[in-house]
Amino acid sequence: MVLRATLVDLLDAILPARCPGCGTWGALVCGPCSATLAPAPIALPPPPVEWWASCFAYEGVARELVARAKYRNERRFLVLVARELARAIESVPSSIDLVTWPPASAARMRAQGVDHGELLARAVARLTGTSVAPCLYRGAGSAQTGLDARARRLGPSLRAIGRVCGATILVVDDVATTGGTLAAAARALRAAGACGVFAATIARTPRPGGRTEALAYNPATSTARAPNSIGSTWTSSSSAST
Ligand SMILES: [Zn+2]
Question: Distance, CA 64 to ligand 1 centroid (Å)?
Answer without folding.
Answer: 11
